[in-house]
Structures are given as structure tokens and as C-alpha cells.
Amino acid sequence: MARKTDIPPSYYGEPRKFDPGFRGPIHNRGCTDVVCCVVFVIFILGYIALGTVAWIHGDPRKVVYPTDSHGQFCGQQGTPNANKAILFYFNILQCANPAVLINLQCPTTQLCVSKCPDRFATYLDMQYNYRYNKSYWEYYRQFCKPGFDNPRKSVAQVLRDEDCPSMIVPSRPFLQRCFPDFITRNGTLTVANKTVFKDGLGKTRSVIDLRDAANRVTAMQQGVESGITSLLDAKEVGMKIFEDYANSWYWILIGLVITMVVSLAFILLLRFTAGVLLWLIIFGVIAVVGYGIWHCYWEFSTLRGKPYGDGDVTISDIGFQTDFRVYLQLSQTWLIFMISLSVIEAVIIIILIFLRRRVRIAIALLKEGSRAIGYIMSTLFYPIITFVLLAICIAYWAVTAVFLASSGDAVYKVMSTPDKCVYANLTCDPETFSQTNVTKVCPGSQCTFAFYGGESLYHRYIFVLQLCNLLVFLWLVNFTNALGQCTLAGAFASYYWALRKPQDIPSCPLFSSFSRAVRYHTGSLAFGSLILAVVQMFRIVLEYLDHKLKGAHNAFARFLICCLKCCFWCLEHFIKFMNRNAYIMIAIYGKNFCTSAKDAFFLLMRNVVRVAVLDKVTDFLLFLGKVLISGSVGVLAFFFFTRKIPVIQEEVPSLNYYWVPLLTVIFGSYLIAHGFFNVYAMCVDTLFLCFCEDLERNDGSPLKPFYMSPQLHRILRREQGSKLYAAS
């Protein structure tokens, strides 16, 4: 029988009065934080209204389809441009003007075409060859304005009226726009094997001019000054990656299914062999990392020993390569891998040496958690509900953001080839433009489409509405996670406070806990979620400011932003920790958020030694479990995709990059294992708080028996230490 001195004294908070008839999660409870619940519902209704308004004013076609100079979409079905899905620039050289990035408008006619040009040609060349072969005009006319059918019209008149391009260059579609077909040969940039060409006026130009113009266009479209060459390289890599996914998706799914089965079996086995399996996890991770160190050393020594190879070549010597297999031929790559794995191995071993006694406590608590999950198996499948709700939130936020971004009417501006036109870049109306005196003052000017926008109150506050969209999205995501944590906590608390297990465990504990959380505590969950969402919103704003200040020379501003980012990161993680424990107390006692958070904080402070040990050690053990499962499946996938399993070599698909499906399997396996082990972590946290409450409520006597298992109580009391007895 335990003594009264076994009960931890109340160092923090007033001594609590306990209900002698307490038998687990309270069923007779009332609604909490009603005001916050009402505010939450109002915000959801407002969010629906925001989505509706965005749906009315937005048009995703503005994002999907490029727009020609007349404001018509390229490739849209049911329009004259249905079969013309690519945007063509009459004279892309005019896009090299730096004003393109300021006005977001290239000063040349833009036309929807069905395909890009595949050769160099000028309007003068076409007129000369037209006298001998009519096919030259038939090819050239597809890049002229619809309805223009006068190949004999003078070049000066054509350029003035923008009827046809003065020249065309070999191009290929990228971002649904025709860009010059750049190819680097022996370090020299070329287009169709040429480094120079003649423009529409017969002037010799370099392909560098084309590259500069293409850079301006891509910068205008992407919002950054990125080069067309790097974007085309990225597209090539992206196409290869897409091809690899198309060839290997079946085997990726098999790998993820194997992970799901292994994770489920692992958690079920913990119920019977928790101690053995958890030690196997520890030594398994050490062995896997050790094998990685040996393999890296073997590759390093092999490449280093080659008399004529890439052993002495460094990563900086070869620069960025789209084929990542090149890096695996360098000894420096394997040296970096070996050093990284050695550091990880050393950290794991040092942690285990210093916490070897505490590991036994964590194993006992995890074993108790495995029993709880074994009795309430439905908890393992609750993450599916969370995943579905999160998918709905993400989809609604993304759709609303796209519709908000595409809100606005077509804005037309005066486009004039002469830079000194006083009306250049002013807004205009294409229907009445011919009746104004702009064409007289600036001959050759046109009223062309520039972008989508507007001057109404709605359009002026699009950015604010986007911020509101993001804030409510973060609120809903955190609320979904909070609902899952509170539901699982209520179910596991029902297990702990059952004196006779499993006879006293109520029927359908997961459903009962979910019903109580939704019916009584929506306001409390929304309150905690709102606090976390506001902090996350501040972090996003700080990240945005930090991105904008990267090129700034104000060292103090960058230092201040860095400090604020660190402080808000710590604050976010502290709030997550407190919210998690507050939701456990809400699930058990049914009190409001502030009271539950206060009770949880004081309870944790009265058991701060246990919290510091169990929280980190159990998290570390569960993390090792995730690493072991994802790493084991990753090793299996590595041997499969690299054709090192002789039995099934013929089944391996042909791949450009074997690391594409490999990394997908490893990352997906970790996420699946994380979903299963998150349930386990919530179970352990709930049982720990219940254990602390159990010690304060009961003394082990027949009138006040402990609800914990005898094995757990014996181990935890043994590790309590002399300090707590001395303090009592």
C-alpha cells in the first residue's frame, strides 16, 4: 500500500478538491466557451460567403489559359481560339525592354496559335519566296492576325498595323507560350544551330538578344528574374520525373501498402512484446545507420582508389547537374554522406547512454499504451477522418485562393513602339480607342490587353481577402487537429479510468468521445486553435518579410527579423504543447479551455521531472520507430529499383532517375508511420496525465485504489527518486 507521502505535493497552484465518485471522463457536462463557438460559426459562414463571392468574380481560366492582345483566352473550348492553345509574340525582341517588369506588359502584339514556328524567317524573305512558291505564305500566315490575306502589303505598312510578325524564330511551347528553342552546344548558346540571325529589318542580331527578351517574359510571368535556360532545364527534369512516376506508380503504391501493414502489425505486436520490439527498434536503427556508414565508406574508398576516375573531382567542379547520378560517381559525395551518418549515429548512442534508465520508464508507458490501443482498435483508423477533413480544408482554401487571384476585369493599356509616346501604358478602352486622338499623336499605337484587375472596393482589397482566407484556413486546420486530439484523449482516458480492464471500458469509447467533443467543446477547441493560428500567421508574415529583406543591406533589420522568427517558433511549439494537454483535460473533465490549460500546466509542473523524461524519451523512441519502418521499406525499395534483387529484376520498370520513386516511397512511408504513431503518442500523453491525476487522487488503499496497472506503478515509483520524497 502506498503512503500519503507518495502523492506529489502541490508546488504549483492551489490544492485541488477531488470528487470521490470520479470514474473517468465526466458524462454530465455543459457547453464551454460558447462565445468562441459562436464566433467560430460566424467565421465559417463568412468563409463560405468569401468563397461564394470569389466564385462569382473569379475565373480560373485567367490562370490556366494565356490571354492574347484582345483579352481572349488561348485554347478555351467554344471560342475561335479553341484549337490555338499557345501564345505567340510578334516580336519577342521588344520584350527585352526593362519596362516589361514594371508595366507587366510586353510592347508587341500577342496572338493565339496552334503551334510554334520551327524555322527562322522574315516577312521580307516570305515576300521574296512567295513569287516562286505560294507555300511560304501559307506557312507564314498562321502567325499573322486572323483575316489578313495580303502577302504583297509593304513591310512598313505591316509593321505599322501589326498585321504580321516581322520575323519568326524556331520556338517550342513553354508555360503555353512560344519561346526560342535554346540549345547549348559546347558552352555556346544557339537556336537551330545558329548564334546570329537577321531580324525583320535585315539587321544581324545575336541569340543573346533573344535570351534577354525571353528572360524578361519569364520574369514577368513568374514574378522573379529567372532565366529561360534554367526554366527549360527544370521542365526537362520535370518531364523525366513525371515519366518515372507514370512507370513506377504501381510499385510505389505497393511499397506504401507494405508500410501500412508493417505499421499496423508493429503497433499490435507492441501489446505483447513492447519491451523486445522497442529495444529492437533502438538497435535496429543503430544497425541500419551503421550499415549506411559502412556502405558510404566502401563507395568512398572504391572511388578514391581509382587511378583514372572521378575520385578527385569535387562537387563544385561539376556544378549543378540535372542527372543526379553524376554526383554518386564522386568520392566527395560519399564522404559527406558518411560524415552525416556518423554524426547521427554518435548522437543516438550518446542519448541512449545518458537516458538508459529513463528508457525503461518510456517502454513501460508505451507497453501500457499498446494495451489501450489493443482494447480500442478503432482509434488506429481515426487519422483517416482527420485526413479527409484536412483534405477538404486544403481543397477549399486552394480553390478560394485561385478564384480570388483570378478576380478582376481585363485591363487594357496603350502599347506604343516609340518610347516617347505620352499615352504609353495608360489605360484605354479597345471599343472606343479608334475614336480617340491617341493614334494621331502616337502612330502605330494599339490598345492591348495588359492584365486582370479593377478599381472597385472588392478589387482593392483582394490582398486583404487572401490574408483572411489564409487565417481561416489555418484556424480550420488547427481545429481539425484539435478535434482529433480531444477525441483520442477521451477514448484513452476511458480506458485508463476503468478499474477492471477491459470489463469497465464503456462501449464505443471513440464515438462517445467524438460526440462529447463536438457537442460540448467546439468553442474550447476553436479557442485554442485560434491562438495557434494567429501565431502561425505571424510566422508566415515574418517569413515573407525575411524573404523580401534577403537582398537588403540593413543588418539590424535582418537580425531583428531573425530574432522574431526564433521567438515565434518557440512560442508556436509551446502553444502546441499546452493545447495538446489542455485538450486532454477538456476530454476528461469537460471544463473550458483556459481552466483546462491552467490545470494541465500546474499538473505538469508538479511532475516536471517525469514530463521532461517521458515526453522526450517516448517521442524519441516513437521517432526511431518511424525511422526504422520508413528506412526498412526504403532499403527494400532501393534494392528493387536498382535491380539488385535477382528474383524480380525483370519486373523493375525503366526509369530516368531511380531516386524519384525511392524518395516517394521513403517520404510516403514516413507519413503513414507518422499517422499510426501519432495515435500512439496521443495515447501515451493521455495515460501520463491520467497517471499524474491518479497519484494525486488516490493512495492505493482499498477505498482509493490506483487505476494504473501494477507494473506501471511499480516502475514509475521506483524511478520517482529521493528528491520528491524529500520535498514532501
Automatic annotation (TrEMBL):
Subcellular location: Cell membrane
GO cellular component: plasma membrane
UniProtKB keywords: Antiport, Cell membrane, Glycoprotein, Membrane, Transmembrane, Transmembrane helix, Transport
KW Transport (keyword) present: yes
Catalytic activity annotation: choline(out) + n H(+)(in) = choline(in) + n H(+)(out)
Any GO MF annotation of the entry: antiporter activity
Membrane-related topology note: Multi-pass membrane protein
Broad class of where this protein is predominantly found: membrane
Transmembrane keyword on record: yes
Similarity comment text for this entry: Belongs to the CTL (choline transporter-like) family.
Protein name: Choline transporter-like protein
Source organism of this protein record: Oncorhynchus mykiss (Rainbow trout)
Gene name linked to the record: slc44a5b
